[in-house]
């Protein structure tokens, strides 16, 4: 497959496209990012790396971190985790409160904010030093110890986390949060503030394309059965109330973040990451979705 030629064609098409969406501004620090940033990195199991744009520039991974948090939680707990968070698409925005009230504080899935907050609570209960161990997990799957949080983004979100605090309070009232609300909120915001480049995210997501093994050295991170489950949740819930649309247009399991990143995988083929900050009304990268749609269309390959 002529992957580099396909990426070049996507880049060429994108120069003629103007994003209509807006860069996230409810976390003030994210609003400072230029809407013109664009990068894409494709890491193929059999044929290596292809890229366009500034694929080594780091950006705020935001909700893409929810996949790593679930992975870490599933690697240290059993099926009891899914008694506290379900695996159904929500059909609602990522920060919505409505379903929680009539579903007794059990979030629909781990990739909306409510679900990720429960996962954060579980990790706090299980880990000795959650922040350090979470970052160490990302260092392990990327073989890159320089990945860090952006402390300005972290501080900025801490000042505007009323909705996430509301989600936590509601879930705590139903008995689904064990730890102190401020501790869970702090750890969750820390995870969202991690910065990675498209290249680094593609390396991290390789474990989901490669049946739970690191490509670099074949080390097992997660069992194939657990990877199957995480990929299934990415497919059905990775894009909030646009998960159906992403499946329809792109046809790969993936996860987005309000920093404008999207990471996706083709099982046993590749991991791919795109970054373009303007978001569509559902909070997903507008041009990122377009680029991935073109990738699966031009290659004629998706999981469907
Ligand atoms: N930190 C963001 C929040 O909690 C993450 C949301 C996202 O990327 N969709 O609102």
Overall description:
- The chain is α+β, with helices and mostly antiparallel strands and 304 residues long.
- Helices cover 45% and strands 11% of the residues.
- The chain is built from twelve helices and eight strands.
- The strands form two sheets. Strands 2-1-8-7-6 form a five-stranded antiparallel β-sheet. It has a three-stranded antiparallel β-sheet with strand order 3-5-4.
- A hairpin with a 3-residue loop joins strand 7 and strand 8.
- Helix 1 crosses helix 12.
- The protein is globular, with a radius of gyration of 18 Å.
- The chain starts with a helix and ends in a 5-residue tail after the last helix.
- The structure holds glutamine.
- Glutamine (GLN) is lined by residues 62-63, 94-95, 113, 157, 164, 192, 257-258, 283.
* Ligand names: glutamine
Envelope shape: globular
- Following the backbone from N to C, one meets helices and strands in this order, namely HEEEHHHHEHHHEHHHEEEH
Structural class: alpha+beta
**What portion of the residues fall into strands of 2 or more residues?**
5-15%
Please provide the count of β strands: 8
Q: How far apart lie the N and C ends?
A: 18 Å
- Compute the CA-based radius of gyration: 18 Å
């Amino acid at each position: 497959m002529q992957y580099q030629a396909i990426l070049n064609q996507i880049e060429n098409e994108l120069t003629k496209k103007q994003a209509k969406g807006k860069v996230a501004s409810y976390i003030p620090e994210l609003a400072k990012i230029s809407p013109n940033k664009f990068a894409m990195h494709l890491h193929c199991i059999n044929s290596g790396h292809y890229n366009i744009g500034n694929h080594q520039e780091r950006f705020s991974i935001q909700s893409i971190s929810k996949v790593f948090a679930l992975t870490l939680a599933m690697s240290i707990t059993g099926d009891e985790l899914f008694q506290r968070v379900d695996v159904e698409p929500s059909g609602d925005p990522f920060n919505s409160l409505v379903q929680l009230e009539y579903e007794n504080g059990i979030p629909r899935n781990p990739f909306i904010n409510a679900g990720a907050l429960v996962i954060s609570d579980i990790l706090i209960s299980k880990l000795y030093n959650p922040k350090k161990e979470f970052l160490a997990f990302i260092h392990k799957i990327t073989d890159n110890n320089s990945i860090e949080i952006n402390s300005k983004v972290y501080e900025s979100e801490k000042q505007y986390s009323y909705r996430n605090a509301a989600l936590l309070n509601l879930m705590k009232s139903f008995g689904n949060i064990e730890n102190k609300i401020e501790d869970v909120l702090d750890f969750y915001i820390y995870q969202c503030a991690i910065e990675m480049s498209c290249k680094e995210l593609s390396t991290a997501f390789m474990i989901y394309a490669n049946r739970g093994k690191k490509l670099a050295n074949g080390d097992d991170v997660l069992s194939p059965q657990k990877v199957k489950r995480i990929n299934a949740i990415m497919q059905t819930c990775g894009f909030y109330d646009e998960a159906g649309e992403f499946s329809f247009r792109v046809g790969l399991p993936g996860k987005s973040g309000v920093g404008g990143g999207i990471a996706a995988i083709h099982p046993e083929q590749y991991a791919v990451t795109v970054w373009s900050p303007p978001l569509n009304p559902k909070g997903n990268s507008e041009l990122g979705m377009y680029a991935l749609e073109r990738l699966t269309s031009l290659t004629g390959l998706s999981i469907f």
